[in-house]
Specification:
five-stranded parallel beta sheet; 14 helices; Aldehyde Dehydrogenase, Chain A, domain 1; seven-stranded mixed beta sheet; Aldehyde Dehydrogenase, Chain A, domain 2; 2 domains; globular; alpha/beta
Length: 499
């Protein structure tokens, strides 16, 4: 057991404690006796200092040429690559995901750094002909200002990178408020950004609770944009606050994702996708497969295979190489998932596998929950409508492709979706008719790539997208510029439209 880390806030280029002595603890979810880190329980005073530092830094950072800003982001990518294993080991201890997945989390950050660095020479605007003679017209991108990044614990490196790197390339300055469950990962990430040479105040880090530091950041009048990833309930509150104060807001929220398996599907391929989609990251992904919509013709055979394979999944600490499923992140999440088992029983669902906490042997001191498969689930049941965020998947039976799409669309969410079929016509119908921001054909619902837009529809977000070139539209404002070199007043729609 290693000594716990002492995390500090990072404000205006300095590592600082909070003005009070109150701290928060980050414990290993596989063994809650291990204290991984402590961090300040910051509040409005620390947020005020961080926003002020970011605002001062914005005056000069926005004037740094975008290609030069991009070179710093590229440097960050190189440093992340050098320290990938260090970050992965820390992540596995702090939030529980298996090392293979933790390495993938860091790799997303690396990929995002290199992709964003390329955008430093591609912050394209548009030129267009003017309707008037001797007049030039164009549009350009300009940075927004101080951006608040509020990030979750399930991807404690990837998601901050998703938000920070395009925002920085665009010329914005940042205040990062990470989840209180993963302060050590955020601290190490910001240390890397500092090492890369970002000027003081361009990136600031404030630890604390969402209802304290997070709320103060969202409400701060000098924050121009809030980028939030979390639950739909909290996202609605964030959006309301930003709406009242005319802030730009980007929300990436919950999901109730489904994988459809049709009667002509490659069942072994669909099985691999279902296991990875439902139980990867212990189901703690917004893109996790929480519903399996199975055609009646293959339902029994697919269920038999699913049970056989799911029973063999190995639970354990994420730091152990043989572990396939780690713990839930904390006691509250364990209680939430356990509570949904009571809901399932009450609604008449049948538990085919799991449905309970696992606490024997080396798992005794952790927040482990068995891989769970619920059968006889109806589309209107709560377990088929609400995000559980754990290793729980519901089986729903349909008789046709049309019914499958209807059931898939029948939730308040619309993040990720998956259809397994060998019928090209069905595949294209699915791409057209599914209400989701992401659709996979013959692949699981999880596995985003950083050069493509990420986000969803309905209660999954507010229309913005993370990563890819679409992120540039989040972190820039459009400015239209006219240059009239005619030497006289020209009135558009008047002087050139004489009847």
């Amino acid at each position: 057991m290693t000594m716990p880390l002492t995390c500090l806030n990072y404000i205006n280029g300095e590592w600082l404690s909070a003005h009070t002595e109150a701290t928060l603890e980050s414990r290993n979810p596989a063994d809650w006796q291990e204290l991984v880190a402590t961090c300040p329980r910051s509040g409005a005073q620390e947020v005020e200092a961080a926003v002020a530092a970011a605002q001062r830094a914005f005056a000069s950072w926005r004037l740094v040429p975008a290609p030069a800003r991009a070179e710093l982001i590229y440097r960050i990518g190189e440093l992340l690559r050098q320290r990938k294993e260090e970050l992965a080991q820390l992540m596995s201890r702090e939030m529980g995901k298996p090392l293979t997945e933790a390495r993938g989390d860091v790799q997303e950050g690396i990929d995002c750094a290199f992709y964003s660095a390329g955008e430093g020479r591609r912050l394209f605007g548009q030129t267009t002909p003017s309707e008037m003679p001797n007049k030039f017209a164009m549009s350009v991108r300009v940075p927004v200002g101080v951006c608040a990044l509020i990030t979750p614990w399930n991807f404690p490196v990837a998601i901050p990178c998703w938000k920070a790197f395009p925002a920085l390339v665009c010329g914005n300055t940042l205040v990062l408020k990470p989840a209180e469950d993963t302060p050590a990962c955020a601290t190490l990430l910001v240390e890397i950004l500092q090492e890369a040479g970002l000027p003081a105040g361009v990136i600031n880090l404030v630890h604390g609770l969402g209802e304290e530091a997070g709320r103060a950041l969202v409400e701060h009048p000098d924050v121009a944009l809030v980028s939030f990833t979390g639950s739909s309930e909290t996202g609605a509150e964030v959006g309301a606050v930003c709406g009242r104060s005319y802030k730009r807001v980007c929300l990436e929220l919950g999901g109730k994702n489904a994988q459809v398996v049709m009667e002509d599907a490659d069942l072994e391929l669909a099985l691999e996708g279902a296991l990875w989609g439902a139980f990867g990251t212990t189901g703690q992904r917004c893109t996790a497969t929480s519903r399996l919509i199975l055609h009646r013709a293959i339902k029994d055979e697919f269920t038999r295979r699913l049970l056989e394979r799911a029973r063999r999944l190995r639970l354990g600490p994420g730091t152990e190489p043989e572990t396939e499923i780690g713990p839930l992140v904390n006691a509250a999440q364990l209680q939430r998932v356990s509570g949904y088992m009571d809901v399932a029983y009450g609604e008449g669902a049948r538990v085919l596998l799991g449905g309970e906490r696992v606490s024997e042997g080396k798992l005794k001191q952790g927040y482990f929950f068995a891989p769970t498969i619920l059968d006889e689930v109806k589309p209107d049941m709560r377990v088929a409508q609400e995000e559980i965020f754990g290793p729980v998947v519901s089986l729903l039976t349909v008789d046709s492709f049309e019914e499958a799409i209807q059931v898939l669309n029948g939730t308040p969410y619309g993040l990720s979706s998956s259809v397994y079929t060998q019928d090209i016509n069905r595949a294209f119908q699915a791409m057209r008719d599914i209400e989701a921001g992401i659709t996979y054909i013959n692949g699981p619902t999880i596995g985003a790539e950083v050069h493509l837009p990420f986000g969803g529809v309905k209660q999954t977000g507010n229309g913005h997208r993370e990563v890819g070139s679409a992120a540039l539209d989040v972190f820039t404002e459009w400015k239209t510029v006219y240059v009239d070199f005619s030497g006289r007043l020209q009135r558009a729609q008047i002087d050139n439209r004489q009847e």
